[in-house]
């Protein structure tokens, strides 16, 4: 049975496919974020990022402020189960609403 | 009219609310307010024009955002 919705509605993973070879922004478990160029992905959200920068947010004891540090890697494979969300890095902060 | 909780009706709910305004809450406290543009059987979700919130604090805005299904606690239609 073909209804209009299923024709127009694409799969969520299609959004990731459109981000191939683009800079993406990935939120990870453990207060981490990563940006880099998306080289490959699969249905588990395993991803391979090139020229990646990982930002790790943490609290230092005795301080209320959230601090962050960055770690860079040339090529990194991120296991899918630590991925929370993925967005095109160039579109963050912009909405049409 | 009370909906019978069958697996058919839960997936009907999900297909009914695509392209409408939703709130997606994740297990780790993050909440996303946006328009549900697609969803699959893993509950992977794409939201359009979404706002990332923690409590009542706005963190970020996304034009398009993919959320991995395992993090989803609920999807509420508005």
From TrEMBL, chain A:
Any single GO BP term: mRNA splicing, via spliceosome
Domain Sm: 11-92
Primary site of residence: nucleus
Keyword Metal-binding part of the UniProt annotation: no
GO molecular function: RNA binding
Location relative to the cell: Nucleus
Key words, A-Z: mRNA processing, mRNA splicing, Nucleus, Ribonucleoprotein, RNA-binding, Spliceosome
InterPro entries noted in UniProt: Lsm3 (IPR034105), LSM_dom_sf (IPR010920), Sm (IPR047575), Sm-like_LSM3 (IPR040002), Sm_dom_euk/arc (IPR001163)
Organism superkingdom: Eukaryota
Tagged with keyword Nucleus: yes
Signal peptide positions (record): none
Example of a GO cellular component annotation carried by this entry: U4/U6 x U5 tri-snRNP complex
Stated role: Binds specifically to the 3'-terminal U-tract of U6 snRNA.
Summary of subunit composition and partner proteins: LSm subunits form a heteromer with a doughnut shape.
Protein name (database record): LSM complex subunit LSM3
From TrEMBL, chain B:
Signal peptide: none
InterPro entries xref list: Lsm6/sSmF, LSM_dom_sf, Sm, Sm_dom_euk/arc
Annotated transmembrane regions: none
Domain of life where this protein originates: Eukaryota
One Gene Ontology biological process: mRNA splicing, via spliceosome
SUPFAM superfamilies: Sm-like ribonucleoproteins
CDD domains: LSm6 (cd01726)
PROSITE patterns in UniProt: SM
Gene Ontology CC annotation, any one: nucleolus
Keyword vocabulary terms for this entry: Cytoplasm, mRNA processing, mRNA splicing, Nucleus, Ribonucleoprotein, RNA-binding, rRNA processing, Spliceosome, tRNA processing
A GO term, aspect molecular function: RNA binding
Residues annotated as domain Sm: 9-78
Predominant location: cytoplasm
Location in the cell: Cytoplasm; Nucleus
Homology family: Belongs to the snRNP Sm proteins family. SmF/LSm6 subfamily.
PANTHER family: SMALL NUCLEAR RIBONUCLEOPROTEIN F SNRNP-F, U6 SNRNA-ASSOCIATED SM-LIKE PROTEIN LSM6
Listed name of the protein: DEKNAAC103943
Species the sequence originates in: Brettanomyces naardenensis
